[in-house]
């Protein structure tokens, strides 16, 4: 008999979705703060930086929610039930938590507690650390040899750098 997950249990599929959304949001946030940091200094105010980061991350999160609902409709041929819609909402909204510290740093710059350049630089570091932690936790728990873990880390970091470069070019 197949066990049906209770409302408190998180399935492996839900964990994959949550991590996937965290990675998307972290890459988007990182690309935005790097583009702001390297952009025209005369147009980089804390208010504009805050709005750009918020709208960019909210945009990618909204797109993720919509894509999950559309994918569900396409595969299952019906609208997600209440539980599934709740999982999709929690997954996409949970990824917004990676926005908190970078947004607070930019707000600190708006309050003249730090320079906007410093806020953006530290925010970028936070996103890099988040991505590194996700990759490390994923590779660390994989049932593979240490050589395969090292290769996976190098490959994933390389892909991450390529993705970041493309996103920075797109936002610049």
The termini sit apart by: 54 Å
Tell me roughly what share of residues is in helical segments.
Answer: over 70%
Return Rg in Å: 18 Å
| Pattern of helices and strands | HHHHHH
Largest sheet: none
The total domain count is 1
What class would the helix/strand composition place it in? Answer: mainly alpha
Binned strand content: under 5%
Globally, the shape reads globular
Which residue ranges are poorly predicted, with pLDDT under 50 across at least 5 consecutive positions? none
Total DSSP helices: 6
Mean pLDDT: 87
Strand count: 0
Keywords: Membrane, Transmembrane, Transmembrane helix
Could you characterize the architecture of this molecule?
By secondary structure, this protein is mostly helical. It has one domain. Helices cover 77% and strands 0% of the residues. It is built from six helices and no strands. The chain has helices at residues 12-38, 46-76, 82-94, 100-110, 116-140, 146-171. Helix 1 (12-38) runs parallel beside helix 3, helix 2 (46-76) runs antiparallel to helix 3 and helix 4 runs antiparallel to helix 5. It starts with 11 loop residues before the first helix and ends with a helix. The relative contact order is 0.15. The mean pLDDT is 87.
């Amino acid at each position: 008999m197949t066990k049906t997950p209770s409302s408190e249990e998180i399935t492996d599929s839900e964990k994959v979705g949550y991590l996937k959304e965290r990675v998307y949001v972290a890459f988007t946030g990182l690309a935005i703060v790097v583009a702001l940091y390297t952009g025209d200094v005369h147009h980089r105010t804390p208010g504009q930086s805050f709005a750009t980061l918020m709208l960019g991350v909210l945009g990618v999160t909204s797109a993720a929610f919509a894509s999950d609902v559309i994918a569900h409709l396409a595969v299952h041929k019906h609208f997600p039930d209440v539980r599934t819609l709740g999982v999709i909402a929690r997954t996409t909204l949970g990824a917004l938590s990676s926005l908190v510290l970078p947004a607070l740093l930019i707000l600190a710059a708006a309050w003249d507690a730090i320079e906007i350049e410093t806020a953006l630089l530290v925010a970028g570091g936070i996103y890099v650390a988040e991505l590194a932690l996700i990759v490390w936790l994923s590779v660390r728990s994989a049932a593979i040899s240490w050589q395969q873990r090292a290769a996976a880390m190098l490959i994933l970091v390389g892909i991450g750098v390529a993705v970041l470069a493309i996103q920075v070019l797109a936002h610049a």
